[in-house]
Amino acid sequence: MSSSRLRVGAFTTPGDAVTLTQGDSTTCGATVVLAARLLLGTAGVPGGSASGLSGPTGPLPGLRLKRALHAEQRRLQARMNRRSGGPLGPLPWTRRLGSTPWAVARALGEDLDA
Q1: What's the distance, CA 10 to chain centroid?
Q2: Partners of residue 19 on adjacent β-strands
Q3: Which of the pair, 39 or 5, is modelled with greater confidence?
Q4: Total Cβ atoms within 10 A of residue 64
Q5: Alpha carbon 92 to chain centroid distance?
Q6: CA–CA dist 95, 27 (Å, integer)
Q7: Three-state DSSP class for residue 18
Q8: How far apart are the C-alpha atoms of 52 and 55, rounded to whole Å?
Q9: I need a surface site. Which of 66, 77, 83, 107 has the fewest CB within 10 A?
């Protein structure tokens, strides 16, 4: 495979598409979930289509799409951490560690069942 990057966007004019990247050092799990949802066509990215594959309109659509993808990663991470559960029981999970492996697995399983 020559490239393992996931390109997201409208692809109609240069600058409309962006490479999906991790928004910060703690959103790796959320980025994996978002990538899976984009590949399955079940992601809803603010400012995009239901599949998240067409970028926003207006100036700098690629930059706006990148910001929307990073915001979606943070939203997914907050949702996953809020319902982390797993072997920790009622103990909280700190955001500095990203998402729990079992929360990522649950989020991916939700997509597969949809």
Answers
A1: 17
A2: 7
A3: 39
A4: 18
A5: 22
A6: 9
A7: strand
A8: 7
A9: 83
Phi-psi region of 52 (alpha: psi -120 to 50; beta: other; left: phi over 0): left
- Per-residue pLDDT tens digits for 38-97: 888 877 655 444 344 444 455 677 888 889 999 999 999 888 887 667 777 777 777 788
The rounded distance, in Å, linking the Cα atoms of 24 and 86 is 24
In sequence order, which ranges of the chain are alpha helices (DSSP H)? 28-40, 61-82, 101-113
Instruction: Calculate the CA dihedral of residues 8, 11, 16, 22 and round it to 10 degrees.
Output: 20
- Indicate the SS3 state at residue 9: strand
- Cα–Cα distance measured from residue 44 to residue 53, given in angstroms and rounded to the nearest whole number: 9
Question: d(Cα 20, Cα 24) in Å, to the nearest integer?
Answer: 12
Which tokens belong to 98? Answer: 């990203």
Encode burial over 1-16: b for 16+ CB neighbours within 10 A, e otherwise. eeeeeeebbbeeeeeb
Task: For the chain, give the number of residues.
Answer: 114
What integer pLDDT is reported at residue 55 of this predicted model?
43
